[in-house]
C-alpha cells in the first residue's frame, strides 16, 4: 500500500467511526426529551409546597418521568399511591427527621459532575452545603435533626481500575462542623485498637441521644456492624456481616443487609433485623437481594427500594420476619417519614 | 508525523558530523515510534474513557455496589503477568510478529468496549474487564520491542520518552472526552462505550496501516544513523540485520538466536538482563502502589477529599511533561543513572510524606516527584533492558523484566497493606523508604554495562 492509499483508508475509517460515535451521542441525548414527558399510567405529580414537618407525610425522590423527575415529592404516608406534590428541589439521595433534611445533589460542571450535600430546613431552604468527594450513596439525619451523615463512593484510579473506597462523613447541623471521614475515628475490634489501610465506612444511622451512631466498617474482606461514639471519636465492632444498618425508632434493633451463602455474586444480600440486646438475627420475608439502607416506617415495619422500571420502587415488609412484602410506591426512592 | 520528521532530520544529519551529541539530540524520532505513540495515545483515550465512567456506571447506571469488586484485581494481576510473558514469546516466534501480536492485543481490548453494553451483572463485567486487560498484557511487550527495534541504541531513551508522553497524554484526554459525552447526554454510558469502541478501532487501524510489520526488519526507519530520510514513514523497508541494525552493537549475543521458549528462559543467564531484572524486582518490591501514595497524601498531608480524584492527574501531568526530557537525559548521561535517580526522586517523595511539615506546596512537590519517578523509570527501564537482549528475543526479554517488576509491585502492595494494618501508615512508609534506599544502593553496585557514551 502506498502512503496515499493508507491515508485514504484512514480518513474514510475516521469518517465512518465519527459517524457511528456521533449517532450514539445523539441517540443518548434524545433521551432527555423522552424523560421529560409524563409516562402513561404513571403517578400524578403536581407542583406545590413540601415541608419536613407536614403531619403523616412521606417525602421521597420522585423518579417518574415528566417535568418533576428527581424532585423531592410528598404523599400521605397512609396513602402512598395518592397524587404527589413536587417541591422543585432535586436530589439523588435524601433523608429527613425533626424538620431537618439532607439532600445529596449532583452539580453539573462544564466537564464532569461534582456532588454536594445540602442541609435543608423544614421548608426545604438550604442552611449549609458541603462538598461530597464521590458518587453519593447513603444519607441519614439523626432523630433529633442535629446530625446528618452521608456516604460516597470514591472511584479507583488505576488502569481499568475496579478498586473503590467509601467516605462516610458526619456534619453537626447546629455548628456546621464536619467530620469528613469516619476513618479518622479510633477503631476497636475484638477489644483491641485496630488499624488498617483498607478500612472503609458506610451506611451511618443515628441513635436519639445525639452521641451514638451505628455504621458498617469493611476491612480485610469482612464487614462489621460498629457502634460509634461522637464524643470519644471511637467506633467499636459489634457483629460481622452487617451492611447499611438502620436503627429502629425505639433503638433496640437494626435492620440491615446481610451477605448470604449461595446467593449470586451480584445479588448477594438479604434483609435481616438484628436485636442489639440478644444479638439474634431474624431474616425478613423479602427474598430478593436488597441493596439499600432500609427505613423504619414505625417500630414494626421497614421500607426499602428495589430496582424498578423507572429506576426504583418502594416496598415494605414486617420487621419481625413474618407477613409478606408489599409494594407501596412505584418510581420512588430515598423515603423519609416526617411529622 | 512525516513532515515534521523530514524537516527535523535535515539539519541534524549535517550537524551530526561535527557535533555528534548535539546532532543526536536534535534528530527526529523514528516514524514507527511516533506511529506507536499515536496508537497508544488513541488507545489510552479509549480505555481511560471507560475507566473514568465505570464507577459512575456501576453505581448509578446499573445500581450495583462496587465494593468488593477490587478482589478481582488481585487475582487478575497474576494472570496478567502470565499473559505478558505469552505475548512476548509469541511476538518473537516466527522471526518477529511483534506488530501482529500487539495488534491482536489492541483488537481484543477494542472488542471489549461494545461488550460492556451487553454485560449487566458484576460477573459479566468482571469478565469483560479481564479480557480487556488480557489484551493490554498481550500487547505491552511486543509494542515496547517495536519501539526499541525502531530506534537506535543511542536515542532509545528518548524514543521511549516520546512514546510514554503520548501514551500519558491519551490517558489525560480520555476522561475529559467521556465526561463531555455524559454532559451532552442523559445517562449516556452507551454513547461513552460506543465512542470508546470507535476510538479503539481507530487505534488498531493506525497500528495496522502505519507501523511496519516484520519486527526486526522494521529497521530504524529514519533515524540519525543514515537511514534514508526521504522514505515514507512506516514503509517496511525490507532490510534486515543491516549494519545499522539497532541492537547489534549493544547485545553481547549473536542476534541470530532462535526465539524458542528455551532461548527465552536462557535470557536470564545473560548477566546484563539478569541484573536489570533483579534490580527491577528489588526496586519494585519497595515501590508503594499509586493508590497508597494518594491515600498517604490525603492522610499525612491533609489533602481535602474533593481533590482526591484529581491526585492521579498530578502524577500523570508530571509524567507527561518530564518523559521526553528525562528520556533524552538518559541517552546522554546514562540510562541506569537516570533510572536510579528516578527512584531517588521516589525516595524523596516518601521522605516528604514522612515529614510533619504541612506546607501548601508539599502535595504538589510529592506529585511532581511521583510523576518524575515514572518519567525517569518507566520507559528508561525498557531502554536499559533492550540493550541486554538480542533482537530476536526482544519481546520476550522485555516481557520478563516487565513481569518481574509488576509481580514485585503487587507483592509490595500486599506487604505494605499488611504493614499498615499492623504498625500504622507512618511505620509502613518508613519501612518502604528504608527498603527503597537499600535496594537502590544495591542496584548502584549492579550497574549493567552502559552502552552510551556520556
From TrEMBL, chain B:
Give GO terms: molecular function aspect only: transmembrane transporter activity
Per UniProt, the ranges with Gly residues bias are 218-229
List each copy of the Major facilitator superfamily (MFS) profile domain by range.
32-451
Which superkingdom is the protein from? Bacteria
* Comp. bias intervals (Low complexity): 245-257
The UniProt entry, under Gene3D superfamilies, shows: MFS general substrate transporter like domains
Keywords of this entry: Membrane, Transmembrane, Transmembrane helix
Q: Give the record's GO CC terms.
A: plasma membrane
Under the heading InterPro entries, the entry gives: MFS, MFS_dom, MFS_trans_sf
What membrane topology does the UniProt entry give?
Multi-pass membrane protein
Its subcellular locations are: Cell membrane
Show the stretches that span the lipid bilayer: 165-185, 191-211, 276-295, 307-326, 338-358, 364-385, 406-423, 429-446
Q: Which PANTHER family match?
A: C-METHYLTRANSFERASE, MAJOR FACILITATOR SUPERFAMILY TRANSPORTER
Any idea what this protein is called?
MFS transporter
What species is given as this protein's source?
Streptomyces lucensis JCM 4490
Amino acid at each position: 500500500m502506498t502512503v496515499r492509499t493508507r491515508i485514504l483508508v484512514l480518513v474514510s475509517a475516521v469518517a465512518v467511526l465519527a459517524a457511528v460515535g456521533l449517532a450514539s451521542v445523539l441517540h443518548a441525548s434524545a433521551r432527555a426529551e423522552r424523560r421529560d414527558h409524563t409516562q402513561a399510567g404513571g403517578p400524578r405529580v403536581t407542583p406545590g409546597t413540601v415541608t419536613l414537618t407536614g403531619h403523616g407525610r412521606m417525602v421521597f425522590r420522585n423518579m417518574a418521568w415528566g417535568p418533576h423527575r428527581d424532585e423531592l415529592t410528598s404523599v400521605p404516608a397512609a396513602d402512598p399511591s395518592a397524587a404527589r406534590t413536587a417541591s422543585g428541589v432535586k436530589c439523588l439521595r435524601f433523608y429527613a427527621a425533626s424538620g431537618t433534611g439532607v439532600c445529596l445533589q449532583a452539580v453539573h460542571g462544564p466537564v464532569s459532575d461534582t456532588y454536594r450535600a445540602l442541609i435543608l430546613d423544614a421548608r426545604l431552604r438550604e442552611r449549609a452545603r458541603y462538598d461530597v468527594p464521590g458518587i453519593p450513596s447513603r444519607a441519614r439525619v439523626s432523630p433529633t435533626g442535629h446530625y446528618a451523615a452521608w456516604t460516597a463512593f470514591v472511584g479507583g484510579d488505576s488502569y481499568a481500575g475496579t478498586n473503590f473506597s467509601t467516605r462516610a462523613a458526619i456534619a453537626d447541623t447546629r455548628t456546621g462542623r464536619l467530620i469528613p471521614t469516619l476513618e479518622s475515628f479510633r477503631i476497636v475490634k475484638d477489644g483491641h485498637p485496630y488499624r488498617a489501610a483498607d478500612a472503609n465506612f458506610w451506611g451511618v444511622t443515628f441513635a436519639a441521644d445525639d452521641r451514638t451512631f451505628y455504621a458498617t466498617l469493611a476491612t480485610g474482606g469482612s464487614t462489621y456492624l460498629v457502634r460509634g461514639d461522637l464524643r470519644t471519636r471511637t467506633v467499636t465492632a459489634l457483629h460481622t456481616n452487617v451492611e447499611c444498618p438502620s436503627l429502629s425508632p425505639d433503638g433496640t434493633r437494626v435492620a440491615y443487609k446481610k451477605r448470604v451463602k449461595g446467593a449470586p455474586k451480584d445479588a448477594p444480600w438479604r434483609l435481616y433485623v438484628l436485636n442489639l440486646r440478644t444479638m439474634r438475627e431474624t431474616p425478613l420475608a423479602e427474598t430478593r437481594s436488597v441493596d439499600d439502607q432500609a427505613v423504619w416506617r414505625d417500630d414494626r415495619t421497614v421500607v426499602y427500594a428495589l430496582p424498578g422500571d423507572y429506576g426504583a420502587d418502594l416496598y415494605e415488609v414486617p420487621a419481625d420476619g413474618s407477613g409478606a412484602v408489599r409494594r407501596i410506591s412505584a418510581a420512588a426512592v430515598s423515603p423519609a417519614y416526617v411529622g | 508525523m512525516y513532515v515534521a520528521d523530514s524537516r527535523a532530520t535535515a539539519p541534524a544529519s549535517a550537524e551530526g558530523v561535527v557535533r555528534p551529541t548535539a546532532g543526536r539530540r536534535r534528530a527526529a524520532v523514528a516514524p514507527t515510534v511516533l506511529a506507536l505513540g499515536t496508537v497508544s495515545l488513541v488507545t489510552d483515550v479509549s480505555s481511560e474513557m471507560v475507566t473514568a465512567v465505570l464507577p459512575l456506571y456501576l453505581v448509578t447506571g446499573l445500581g450495583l455496589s462496587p465494593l468488593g469488586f477490587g478482589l478481582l484485581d488481585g487475582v487478575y494481576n497474576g494472570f496478567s503477568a502470565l499473559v505478558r510473558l505469552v505475548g512476548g514469546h509469541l511476538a518473537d516466534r516466527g522471526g518477529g510478529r511483534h506488530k501482529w501480536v500487539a495488534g491482536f492485543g489492541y483488537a481484543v481490548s477494542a472488542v471489549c468496549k461494545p461488550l460492556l453494553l451487553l454485560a449487566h451483572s458484576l460477573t459479566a463485567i468482571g469478565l469483560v474487564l479481564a479480557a480487556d486487560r488480557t489484551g493490554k498484557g498481550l500487547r505491552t511487550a511486543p509494542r515496547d520491542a517495536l519501539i526499541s527495534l525502531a530506534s537506535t541504541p543511542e536515542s532509545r531513551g528518548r524514543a521511549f520518552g516520546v512514546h510514554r508522553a503520548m501514551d500519558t497524554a491519551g490517558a489525560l484526554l480520555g476522561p475529559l472526552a467521556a465526561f463531555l459525552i455524559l454532559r451532552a447526554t442523559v445517562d449516556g454510558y452507551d454513547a461513552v462505550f460506543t465512542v470508546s469502541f470507535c476510538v479503539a478501532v481507530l487505534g488498531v487501524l493506525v497500528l495496522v496501516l502505519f507501523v511496519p510489520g516484520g519486527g526486526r526488519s522494521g529497521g530504524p526507519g529514519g533515524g540519525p544513523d543514515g537511514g534514508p530520510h526521504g522514505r515514507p514513514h512506516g514503509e517496511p523497508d525490507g532490510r534486515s540485520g543491516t549494519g545499522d541494525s539497532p541492537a547489534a552493537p549493544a547485545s553481547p549475543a549473536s542476534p541470530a538466536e532462535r526465539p524458542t521458549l528455551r532461548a527465552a528462559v536462557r535470557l536470564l543467564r545473560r548477566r546484563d538482563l539478569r541484573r536489570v531484572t533483579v534490580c527491577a524486582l528489588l526496586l519494585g518490591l519497595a515501590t508503594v502502589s499509586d493508590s497508597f501514595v494518594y491515600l498517604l497524601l490525603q492522610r499525612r498531608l491533609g489533602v481535602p477529599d474533593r481533590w482526591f480524584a484529581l491526585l492521579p492527574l498530578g502524577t500523570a501531568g508530571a509524567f507527561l511533561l518530564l518523559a521526553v526530557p528525562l528520556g533524552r537525559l538518559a541517552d546522554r548521561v546514562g540510562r541506569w543513572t537516570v533510572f536510579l535517580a528516578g527512584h531517588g526522586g521516589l525516595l524523596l517523595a516518601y521522605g516528604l510524606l514522612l515529614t510533619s511539615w504541612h506546607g501548601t506546596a508539599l502535595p504538589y512537590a510529592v506529585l511532581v516527584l511521583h510523576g518524575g519517578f515514572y518519567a525517569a523509570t518507566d520507559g528508561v527501564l525498557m531502554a536499559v533492558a533492550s540493550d541486554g537482549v538480542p533482537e530476536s528475543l526482544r519481546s520476550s526479554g522485555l516481557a520478563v523484566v516487565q513481569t518481574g517488576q509488576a509481580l514485585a509491585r503487587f507483592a509490595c502492595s500486599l506487604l505494605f497493606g499488611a504493614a499498615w494494618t499492623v504498625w500504622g501508615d507512618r511505620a509502613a512508609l518508613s519501612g518502604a523508604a528504608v527498603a527503597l534506599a537499600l535496594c537502590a544502593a544495591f542496584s548502584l553496585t549492579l550497574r549493567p554495562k552502559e552502552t552510551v557514551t556520556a
